[in-house]
TrEMBL record:
The keyword 4Fe-4S does not apply. Residues 245-326 form the CobW C-terminal domain. It catalyses: GTP + H2O = GDP + phosphate + H(+). The keyword Chaperone applies. Belongs to the SIMIBI class G3E GTPase family. ZNG1 subfamily. This is Metal chaperone YciC. It comes from the Bacteria. PANTHER family: COBW DOMAIN-CONTAINING PROTEIN, COBW-RELATED. It comes from Paenibacillus auburnensis. Residues 6-186 form the CobW/HypB/UreG nucleotide-binding domain. Keywords: Chaperone, Hydrolase, Nucleotide-binding. InterPro entries: CobW-likC_sf, CobW-like_C, CobW/HypB/UreG_nucleotide-bd, P-loop_NTPase, Zinc-reg_GTPase_activator.
Amino acid sequence: MKQALPVYILSGFLGSGKTTLLQRLLDHWKAQGLRPAVVMNELGEVNLDGLLVEQSVPMAEMLGGCICCTSRGDLSTELTTLVKKESPDVVVIEATGAANPLEIVDAVTETSLYQLVELKGLITVVDAAHLLELYRSQQGSTYRLMQEQIRCASVLILNKTDRVTAEEADEISDVLRKWNAYAEILPAVRCGLEPEILLGSLGGVHLEGRDDEEAEEGITEGGESAQGTHTVHAHPTHDHVMAYTHYFKRAVNSEEFEQFVKELPRDVYRAKGIVTFSDTSSRFLFQYAYREADFMKITPQGEVPDVAVFIGEHFSSGELRTQLLQLEKRTLTRPGTVRRSL
Ligand SMILES: Nc1nc2c(ncn2[C@@H]2O[C@H](COP(=O)(O)OP(=O)(O)OP(=O)(O)O)[C@@H](O)[C@H]2O)c(=O)[nH]1
């Protein structure tokens, strides 16, 4: 199966160091012989940050507004066009510092319904001095937005530590930990981190879509793991992930899938996808929001993968993945014969 295209979101308040980090990441990927592409969003009509990025890097620009305030479909369309036109190996979305990252996460996961893309993580860059100042005054919409950007990060870069004392850096680390108990906190000056360490800290091997085979090996024919339990934890659970994207390799039973959706953990507050069932004649688009699920028959235009995305906070994507692999495995051993007339 073709590898899903990794997508990273860079978030962080205005001037925190996102572009500085972006340049480091681009250099890293290029040195590896990869072809990165960028989606850049600026509040103004001119993309000044874009001028800092080498011309050889394909770029989609969304100017004159904040990604999260314009239609989410716009970002999805930009991303799709960029991927089709440039065939990059990796994509970074640098959002304006005033964006609410959750909306961007939603747009990326929306895209993964139609394209083989996968959200790998949300990196939030924090300006240590700026946050400390705001934390001490504890007010304002900037403060709330920063809080939001920190809360939903998969990894936090505590940048500009050269502008605070060691004690202040500790104080601000405690604040970050209080707001986001899951993301790794990486202190830095000019985002000078080893990209390998940063990207590695996004954890969630489950997000890499590479080890499906490996995890399946742990599941026996009856859908039980070799250890006799229903879940196989090849990797630590409860990684903080914003979204888990599952590309199905085969059809699943509709009733079992409905049951699975019904029993989704509370921390998954949004899910959507396109699935082929082994016991129905049509494909379905499913939507799930705040404990309500909806299934709709669809006939997608063009080639669309069977995929499900789950968005939430601090849920165990490894657990979901194992359950879905088990559903797939069960249809393999017990293909659907009775067709439901859905
Ligand atoms: N002192 C200090 N300055 C830094 C550090 N990291 C970045 N800067 C500077 O901070 C300024 C803003 O950095 P950018 O990387 O452009 O920040 P940004 O988040 O992309 O900014 P916006 O696009 O406006 O949201 C630049 O002048 C950087 O050189 C740091 O660790 N310490």
